[in-house]
Automatic annotation (TrEMBL):
This is Oleosin. Belongs to the oleosin family. The chain crosses the membrane at residues 34-60, 66-95. The keyword Transmembrane applies. One of its GO terms (biological process) is reproductive structure development.
Length: 142
């Protein structure tokens, strides 16, 4: 039994070493394959551009305005969709706030509302004082 216990760490070390060799071989194979694939794609891109460049030069008076129109159309639809999503999000937040479901940021809105109400009350009191001063014949200009 003592031989069996001393033999296990070597076996575990050999398994770990062989496992690392398999990992390295797999990584090298995958990396090499991807590197070859990247080279092939680069070559195909260069060949495609070489063939397409004369066609792009010949058709550029048509393609450039068409590309601009497609870009503007795509941008318009994207902006409209974004604004639509934003509007639905805001309406959903307002609905949850009004129905009392306490959406995120509702505490901050309540704080700001209370501050504004306090400032409005303060300004009303100052306006009443100013009106009373002028009504009682206080300092007048001109």
């Amino acid at each position: 039994m003592a031989e069996n216990i001393t033999h296990r760490p070597k076996q575990h070390q050999q398994q770990t070493q062989s496992h690392q060799v398999v990992k390295a071989a797999t990584a090298a194979t995958a990396g090499g394959s991807l590197l070859v694939l990247a080279g092939l794609i680069t070559a195909a891109t260069v060949i495609g551009l070489t063939i397409a460049t004369p066609l792009l030069v010949i058709f550029s008076p048509v393609l450039v305005p068409a590309a601009i129109a497609v870009f503007l159309l795509f941008s318009g639809f994207l902006a409209a969709g974004g604004f639509g999503v934003a509007a639905l999000t805001v309406l959903s937040w307002i609905y949850r706030y009004v129905t009392g479901k306490h959406p995120p940021g509702a505490d901050r809105i309540d704080e700001v509302r209370q501050k504004m109400a306090g400032k409005a009350k303060e300004m009303r009191e100052k306006a009443e004082q100013f009106g009373q001063q002028h009504a009682s014949g206080g300092p007048q200009g001109f």
